[in-house]
Amino acid sequence: MRIESIAQFASLQEESRRRAADRRQQIMVCCGTGCLASGSKKVAEAFAEEVAKRGLDASVGMFVKTTGCHGFCERGPLVALLPSGILYTKVKPSNVGQIIDKTVLGGEVIPSLTYKNPADGQRISAYAEIPFYKHQLRVAMRNIGRIDPTDIRDAIAEGAYSGLAKALGEMTPEAVIEEVAIAGQRGRGGAGFNTARKWRSCRRAPGDRRFVLCNGDEGDPHSVLEGMVIGAWAVGAHEGFIYVRDEYPLAVVHLTIAMEQARSYGLLGDNIMGSGFDFDIRISRGGGAFVCGESSALMRSLEGKIGEPRAKYVHSTDKGLFDLPTVLNNVETWAGIGAIIERGGAWFASMGTERSKGTKAFSLVGKVKNTGLIELPMGTTLRRIIFDIGGGILGDRPFKAVQTGGPSGGCVPEALLDLPVDYERLTEAGSMMGSGGMIVMDDRTCMVDVARYFLKFLTEESCGKCVPCREGLQQLLHIFDRLVEGRGRPDDIPAIERLSRGMQLGSLCELGKSAPNPVLSTLRYFRSEYEAHIFGKSCPAGICRELTAYEIVPDLCDGCHACFKACPVNAITGTIKELHRIHHDACISCGACFDVCPTAAIRTFPKVELKTEVV
Amino acid sequence: MTEQPCVDLVKAEAILGKYPPAEPSLIQVLQDVQRAYNYLPCDVLVKVAETLGVPLAHVFSVSTFYKAFALDPQGDTIIKVCTGTACHIRGAGQLVEELTRTLGIGPDQTTGDLKFTVKTVNCVGACAMAPVMIVGDKYWGNAKPARMTKYLGKGKGGDDEN
Amino acid sequence: MPTLTVNGKKVTVGEDAVILDAARCAGVHVPTLCQFDGLEPWGGCRLCVVDMWQQGWDENWFKMVTACNHPVAEGMRVFTSSERVLETRRVVLDLLLARCPETPLIQRIAAEHGISETSYEVNPTPTDCILCGLCTRVCDHIGVSAIASVNRGWGREIAPPFHQAPPDCIGCLACAEICPTRCIPYSEAAGSRRIWDKDFEMLRDPVTGEAVITKAQAEHFARRSGVPQGYFATSDGSKRRVMATTFTKLKVVG
């Protein structure tokens, strides 16, 4: 049914809400990438079969739906129940009958399926009480986990497109930009540029044809679409593109379905909501190039060219895609717009810090107990994120650092755990917000190896146009290859610093300019590790293989044989219940034995000490 | 170009028919070609250049710039090991090594019998399940080197537990 | 017509001028590698970086930009040899010298900046190609696009499609002539030219018999310009003789 007026939209919204209310018992099975990998599809099918078989949809309004990522991927498959608000974790198809009978129909919690808080061993059944969710404040992610991304009426019931109805029905394009200005929203892709300012520049650019682009994959499709239609209305664009990375086939599927449904309802395409405004979007799949996250490179890719950035002296709001005025925003930026318009810029600005308004989504991963996608007000401290929401370090090992901002960012050490997360503070600390990646690291992480890892990644992603980045990254990698292999030289640190400065000043685009960040931040906070590699030929974290040897501590070994089984090169000998031994000539120092030993009987020591040891 | 066998261009023509015959369609066309032929055959690239009106040199340039494309036939099953940061921290390197030990090939290489190609990819978006390995269409989260033969045995379909 | 200063010297240049134009006007030398008058600036070599201040900025706030493509503005102040500019150029040259240790042009410019040998790891397979892109850019400019950049990052190189004789090449030698390090080889013999592993038949001047131009290039230019092909196959000497004959037939006025 095509919506031909704002009033019609309002009735569709009401009808969708009534339909949602009729679904008195909702069983929401997460089918985001993480849960799918744990087998959630079979769980969803099992529920649907059982409900249909027993006629529970008709009799008690029981409804099974698949949703996008709940965020708590570590504990998948996740099943959330409404109206009870119970969350079950690690659900198997065999649990389905029990869940329906005991919980949905019987109102009883099944303890074994609830979340167990590692901090105190307590079971928590209420979604909203689980620390991972309790501290979150979802704006861009407001509908994720609550709606079926393939059913637009679900999204509409939850408020999707009501911001658009307000914009088209009651506001001028300038008023829309003003509201976004009041919100103070800054781009969520990494650069943190003021959204309203960008839109204003584009609106003022001469010419009839202009574009709005979305850089990014994940996200609730309808929030993103709604945001883009509002943005297109604001800047006067009739064409939009969503650039999806090649590695995310699921995002393309969901987006395509959402767009088709939006079009069929008249929320996208010609004469949107009967307003006379035309705007449509095409999906463009990337070819597999990190550099295409850079806005000018992305535009070249949309033009069918190689992803080579160009100098930004002429802004893309004047000359962007096909040399026409273009607004490029990150997917999370777009996803927040609908809520900003519906609830007002002041509401958004009431959250966050002075210069970083609103909320931000983070991907909390690495050596942390609760990994997943979270959204919080700007200004939340790292400590709260990692320990309260993240549940602390895996295995309760010591925290060492958290890497934020991906390959363009830096590491933040323990001393700065009380840093409130916002654009300025992270930059001051030598890192950056980026798009919200947060990789937690423990004591079994070598910061020199971390820096090398990012350099290796960037050497493969550099487009190769400019000398400082193309040649500089290669030379930095050469230095780091030597460092991790114990062939560091006394002048390596000054050489690294000089080359880094040259890259920061001389590179053409942000990939090259920010490439030294992981190097410089690890050098800033963990200089002693660099010095140990260079002067001591040792890796304090016990990670760099050329510098690290492993041995089994006799008193702690109980002969369980786990190390023997884990060793990929048969370098361990020993019979069950007897002391095992690592043979240094065969050992490749991969650490597999260390990771599995249940009694922590394996220790690392510098390989240089091997020479003096009697083998 | 003369070393490659000729391929059936019918699939390519069907793909080209779906897009406007102009440069902006290039990358989308190449992706469909990659999916249809399992690589980018050179005579297809010549046809693409002709139909879209893009110089052959530019088509070749784009084909070699983006990681999504291969210019040599790929294995029947593509194994992708995610080497994004979260997966790296959780031992993706060990998975790659185990693959080399098991199959005798490294990243961007194909086994002699064209059964498997190993690729490293940057972040598939399942960081909570790190390290992640994708064999064909099947995602394996929390992957362990010791279970490699299990992952390689079950190429496609199903979503069993790890 | 904006007025700006370059190293303190005041110049006035055209509206569409870039900083490099202003520097030339002021008689200030800014080194370049990937810049060529008549071709769109590319900004890839980064050798022409300068420090720049614009009106409205804090007195001590400078931005390092490439002179070849940054537009000028009224009241702009440009500094072409501040310490950080010189240091950045040195890093660029140091890196290039590691990539191209045996290339005279790079050795010379590096030496001019005080670098006699690279402080980085030398390229195990030295090349003369500095990846300035001039060859591909001129080839695109004349509407041929026979060669392009291949791969990305450190493995990037200039090559014809499939590393084989490029079907679109017209043998005009623009790429070979524009290359600053002369690293594109070609040969000519017996009325034939060879470049990029492709052989070209050459058209001869009808009077003198000298090989003047490849057939393919003459056809390309004739198609693009509407000028008969025969014009392009005339040697310079013949053209001069024709003009001399023409002049004799003119009536001198005045």
Keywords:
heterotrimer, A: 615 residues, alpha/beta, 5-stranded mixed sheet, 4-stranded mixed sheet, 25 helices, 40% helix, globular, C: 254 residues, alpha+beta, 4-stranded antiparallel sheet, 8 helices, 11 strands
In short:
The complex is a heterotrimer of chains A (615), B (162) and C (254). Chain A has 615 residues and is α/β, with parallel strands linked by helices. Chain A has 25 helices and 19 strands.
Please tell me about this protein's structure.
The complex is a heterotrimer of chains A (615), B (162) and C (254). Chain A is of the alpha/beta class and 615 residues long. Chain A is built from 25 helices and 19 strands. In chain A, the strands form six sheets. Chain A has a five-stranded mixed beta sheet. A four-stranded mixed beta sheet of chain A has the order 2-1-3-4. In chain A, strands 9-8-7-10 form a four-stranded parallel beta sheet, sandwiched between helices. In chain A, a hairpin with a 6-residue loop joins strand 5 (115-116) and strand 6. Chain B has helices at 10-17, 26-37, 42-52, 56-65, 85-89, 92-103, 148-153; strands at 77-82, 109-110, 116-121, 133-135, 138-140. Chain B starts with 9 loop residues before the first helix and ends in a 9-residue tail after the last helix. Chain B has 162 residues and is an alpha+beta fold. In chain B, helix 1 (10-17) runs antiparallel to helix 2 (26-37), helix 2 (26-37) runs antiparallel to helix 3 (42-52) and helix 3 packs across helix 4. In chain B, a hairpin with a 2-residue loop joins strand 4 (133-135) and strand 5 (138-140). Helices cover 29% and strands 18% of the residues of chain C. Chain C has helices at residues 19-25, 83-99, 104-112, 134-141, 174-178, 215-225, 229-232, 236-248; strands at 3-6, 9-12, 49-53, 63-66, 77-79, 148-150, 157-159, 186-189, 192-195, 198-204, 211-214. In chain C, helix 2 runs antiparallel to helix 3 (104-112). The longest helix of chain C has 17 residues, at 83-99. The two termini of chain C are 40 Å apart. Chains A and B meet through helix 2, helix 3, strand 11, strand 15 and helix 18 of A and helix 2, helix 4, helix 5 and helix 6 of B.
